[in-house]
What does this fold into?
Amino acid sequence: MKSKVSAKWIRMSPRKVRRVADLIRGKQVDEALNILHFSPKAASVPLEKALRSAIANLMNIEDKSKVRSEDLFVDEARVDQGITLKRIRAASMGRAMRIRKRTSHITLVVSDGE
It folds into this structure.
């Protein structure tokens, strides 16, 4: 049984979020939550929130008997680039420099191995 969750428009660069997502891909859910909770990276906060949501979705499926959290693992952790917000900042000699504020789309799939 699988549970898929996506968190869109996260205001972080996908490159920074992928560094943290690589740490939890293929791990047991309990171990992945520990890694995310104690990671100093800011990207671990939305990843942990998405992972907890995926676990809750899988636990609350009605047609399936109760699933134990010890049996779950992170099957897929994908981070895609969202839109880029373009902003302008004043530069020297009257110029305007472009600032790119990047966004991310996080997709997590939690599975029980069946």
